[in-house]
C-alpha cells in the first residue's frame, strides 16, 4: 500500500444491522486505512454495538441528523487524511478494493475523485443502480450510469472493466482528495440527501480536475438503505436537488432554457405518477418545484458564486436526451448509446 493517508468514513444513521453485516469484511480488507464511524444521531443501538464489538474504531457523534451532505461536511472536518473514502453502511467491500484506486490517483494527480465498480448485493450479477461502472448526465441534467439507464440494470460481463473518466462518482463509495473537498467547502448542505455527490463532481470538473471509475476495485451495494426507491421522500429530493444542481452549475444563457425544459418534463413525470396511481410521488414533484421557486433568490446567490466559465468544456455529458434515447428509442444499455455524443471525447 502507498504512503497516501486514507480514511474510510461511514456516515451511519440507524444502520446497526448493516454495521453488523458489513464491518467484518471492511475491517479485514482495509488494514492500511483508518476507519471512522460518524453517527448522524441514530436512535437505534448502533453506538452500543460499536462500543461492544469494534471499540478500536473511531466514532464521531453528531448532535442531530444533518443528512448525507451536512453529516459528512461536519464529520470530515475532524478527519485528517489525504484521501477520504465516503462509504455507505450498506456496502460490502472485497479484498484489494482500496489499492487500485489509490494507485490510479497517485499516478495522475489531476484525478480528484474516483469510484469502484458497484454491483448489486442482492442480485450479484447486476451492476448497481446507485453507481454501476461510473456516472454520467445528459445535457438536460438527467443522471445515469454505465450499466444502469433509469431502472434498466445490466448484468456485469466485464463489458465495463476499463478505467475511464466519468462525469460523477457515486456517493455510496466515493474516493475524494481531502484538500479539494475542503477547497470546495464540501457538499451543498441544502441538498440534505441525493445528488449532492453529482453536484460536488460537477464543481470538481469546473476546477479542471478528473473524476474516474476504476473497475479493478469492486464492491457490492444493498441500496435504498435509508430511503427505498419507491419512497416519495426520495422522489422529492431527486426532483428538487436536480433542479438546484442545474441552476447552480449550468452557464447562462443555457441554464434558463434547460430549466424551462425541465419544468415541462417534470410536469409530465408528475402526470405519469398520477396516471399510475402514485399520488404521493406526484405530490412530491409538486413540492419539489414549490421549494425551488420559494428558494430561488437564495439559490441565485449561490449560483453567482459558482457559475462556470461559458467556454469551459465539461467532459462526459451526453449531448442527447437520455429520456428520448431510453423511452422513445429503447436504449437500455450504456454501450448502445452513441459514444460520439459525449462531450470531451
- Count of DSSP helices? 11
Total beta strand runs: 14
Percentage of residues in helical conformation? 25-40%
- Radius of gyration using CA atoms only: 19 Å
Which residue ranges are poorly predicted, with pLDDT under 50 across at least 5 consecutive positions? none
Q: How is the main sheet built?
A: 9 strands, mixed
* Dominant shape: globular
Derived from helix and strand composition plus strand pairing, the structural class reads alpha/beta
Average pLDDT score:
94
Q: What share of residues are in beta strands?
A: 15-25%
Straight-line distance between termini: 33 Å
- Provide the succession of SSEs: EHEHEHEEHEEEEEEEHHEHHHHEH
Summarize the structure.
This protein has 345 residues and is α/β, with parallel strands linked by helices. The chain contains eleven helices and 14 strands.
3D structure, described in words:
The chain has 345 residues and is of the alpha/beta class. The chain has helices at residues 16-28, 46-53, 67-76, 99-107, 178-183, 196-206, 232-249, 254-275, 279-294, 296-306, 322-328; strands at 6-12, 34-39, 58-61, 83-87, 91-93, 111-120, 135-138, 143-145, 148-149, 152-153, 164-165, 173-177, 210-221, 317-318. Strands 1, 2, 3, 4, 5, 6, 11, 12 and 13 form a nine-stranded mixed β-sheet that branches. It has a three-stranded mixed β-sheet with strand order 8-7-14, with no helix packed on it. The protein has a two-stranded antiparallel ribbon with strand order 9-10. The chain is globular and about 55 Å long. The two termini are 33 Å apart. 43% of the residues are buried. The mean pLDDT is 94.
Amino acid at each position: 500500500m502507498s504512503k497516501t493517508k486514507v480514511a474510510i468514513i461511514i456516515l451511519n444513521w440507524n444502520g446497526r444491522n448493516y454495521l453488523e453485516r458489513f464491518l467484518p469484511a471492511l475491517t479485514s480488507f482495509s488494514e492500511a486505512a483508518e476507519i471512522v464511524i460518524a453517527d448522524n444521531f441514530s436512535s437505534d443501538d448502533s453506538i452500543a454495538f460499536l462500543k461492544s464489538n469494534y471499540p478500536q474504531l473511531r466514532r464521531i457523534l453528531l448532535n442531530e441528523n444533518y443528512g448525507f451532505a451536512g453529516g459528512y461536511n461536519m464529520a470530515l472536518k475532524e478527519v485528517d487524511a489525504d484521501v477520504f473514502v465516503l462509504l455507505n453502511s450498506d456496502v460490502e467491500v472485497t479484498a484489494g478494493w482500496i489499492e487500485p484506486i489509490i494507485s490510479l490517483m497517485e499516478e495522475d494527480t489531476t484525478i480528484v475523485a474516483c469510484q469502484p465498480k458497484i454491483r448489486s448485493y442482492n442480485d450479484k450479477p447486476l451492476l448497481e443502480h446507485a453507481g454501476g461502472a461510473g456516472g454520467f448526465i445528459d445535457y438536460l441534467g438527467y443522471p445515469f450510469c454505465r450499466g444502469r439507464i433509469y431502472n434498466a440494470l445490466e448484468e456485469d460481463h466485464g463489458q465495463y472493466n476499463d478505467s475511464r473518466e466519468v462525469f460523477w462518482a457515486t456517493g455510496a463509495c466515493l474516493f475524494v482528495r481531502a484538500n479539494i473537498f475542503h477547497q470546495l467547502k464540501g457538499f451543498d448542505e441544502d441538498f440534505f440527501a441525493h445528488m449532492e455527490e453529482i453536484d460536488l463532481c460537477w464543481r470538481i470538473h469546473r476546477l479542471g480536475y478528473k473524476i474516474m471509475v476504476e473497475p479493478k476495485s469492486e464492491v457490492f451495494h444493498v441500496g435504498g438503505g435509508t430511503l427505498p426507491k419507491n419512497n416519495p421522500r426520495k422522489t422529492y429530493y431527486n426532483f428538487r436537488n436536480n433542479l438546484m444542481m442545474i441552476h447552480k452549475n449550468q452557464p447562462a444563457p443555457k441554464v434558463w432554457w434547460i430549466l424551462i425544459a425541465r419544468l415541462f418534463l417534470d410536469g409530465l413525470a408528475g402526470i405519469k405518477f398520477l396516471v399510475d396511481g402514485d399520488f404521493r410521488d406526484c405530490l412530491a414533484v409538486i413540492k419539489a418545484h414549490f421549494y425551488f421557486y420559494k428558494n430561488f433568490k437564495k439559490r441565485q446567490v449561490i449560483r453567482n458564486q459558482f457559475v462556470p466559465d461559458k467556454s469551459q468544456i465539461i467532459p462526459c455529458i451526453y449531448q442527447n436526451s437520455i429520456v428520448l434515447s431510453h423511452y422513445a428509442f429503447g436504449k437500455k444499455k450504456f454501450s448502445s448509446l452513441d459514444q460520439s455524443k459525449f462531450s470531451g471525447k
